[in-house]
User: Fold Crossover junction endonuclease MUS81 from Stegastes partitus.
Amino acid sequence: MPASEPVRLGRKRVLPACPNPLFLRWLTELRDEAREKGLKTQYTYQKALSSLNKYPLPLRNAKEAKILQNFGDGICKILDEKLQRYHQENGADAQIQSVSSAAPPAGRADNNSVAPSRKKNSAGDGGKDRAPDGKKKRREYVPQKRSGGHAVLLTLYRQSQIPDSKGFMFKLELQAEAQPLCDKSFTVPDLGSKYTAWTSVSTLIQKNLLIKTHNPARYSLTEEGLALAERLAAAERQTTEEEEEEEEGPGVVDLTGSDDGEGEEDRTHPTGSAAGQQSSDTDASCSSEKPQSSQTTSRHQGGGCLLPGTYEIILCVDFIETTGGSNHRKQELVKELQRNRVNFDIRKLNVGDFLWVAREKVTPVPGQLRVPAGRELVLDYIIERKRMDDLCGSIIDGRFREQKFRLKRCGLHRPVYLVEEHGTAASHLSLPEATLQQAIVNTQVVDGFFVKRVQDVRESAAYLTIMTRYLNKVYQNRTLSCRSRELEGDVCGAEEERGVPSCSLISFAEFNHGAVKNKCQTVREVFARQLMQISGLSGDKAAAILEHYSTPHR
Assistant:
């Protein structure tokens, strides 16, 4: 039986040093720097370090490292830049393989550890991320520049700095004001994604930077959010000042011309003054197109404005008017509108049956499947259509008074009742014809609605066609501005008194959202509904009572 081989006792074989200590040191510095900043690139640098440790051959430059795993163009470019600076400082013949100072050995645990260990708390790098009591420090949340959270914080901070500000902003108002400060849309998600810039608001609320109260929702800054927004605004001002200083630098001089003195002023173009002159020319041309009564427009710049020629008037038809019930009669309305070449759109309207919007004209973006959604502002006209049988039913079940009340509160100032006589059908209803006629007269005289009587669906379509053409002519050369529905009482100016349609309009999204029938109601609104159930108490009388007694408790 052969003798067994002697057991070798002693230390393990020392691993050879890395043949590329310079690259190893630079990658270690990059990893440690990313770790201190809390960046996820530290893991990328660590993977590159592990690959470099396993490579046994020397590298002459970073391009040769592309054959290694986890070495991309970005890391190779950074290493090449460091290598160029190293050659400039130490000479072109300096050896990069013989450098051994400050380069950790290949087998050191420092090169193989990705982040400070969760189980160990050494006095080295792991102690930097921990508080004196041993708990890990919580890194402060700061939204990225031009992101949704960044734009919302800046907008609320700027609004809070306005004297006599209300201290909060509504959702649609906040979205309109913050959109110019954000690269992503607050309403339309990117292609292939379901998230918008507004999604970041939930993060701000979770981080106790933003508070949401009331219904409709009101958004305001907390003390922590105000402090962070103030820092963001200061950084924004500093960046703007630096950019202005760069623009106001020395002029660009044409050195290709002759040496003669004449024309030197023409060849010197100060970039700052040129940009200022161009912007002033643009402002002057824009202001010349706007009407003189632009106080309302300037007061609501956040929503933007639609200049003449940049929008088209569209008739919006409630989908209930085209489906259900007598389908043949309802389809006849659509066919008549198509025959009259009316530009209309069928959609869900939470109040009224017909209205008109000014839709912004947009051009398709190359490379995108969908055309960007244009802004839509609701004109001041809204129509509620009633047949005699429908009018009778709505009076019996109480819908008639409720619909008039909601039309008055919808934010549009020119409601119209379109009543279809429908031949002799009124003589076969459960209410006397005199009662129906009296209800129509009360709607016009007492409630202040404009009542238009027609005979059938064809005349209704003709009236809608004429109204559409009339509105196209009225708004042909007018600049439209967007306002918030909450500021409704602030926009009634001289134009309204003269009978000219207002050019300060609310957006369709805000109008339809505010007209939801079964939305959450305040105590004041419920009290108003209760008062209107009393016989002889109209909406105006209920509103007068609410001015003195806003709730039943008072």
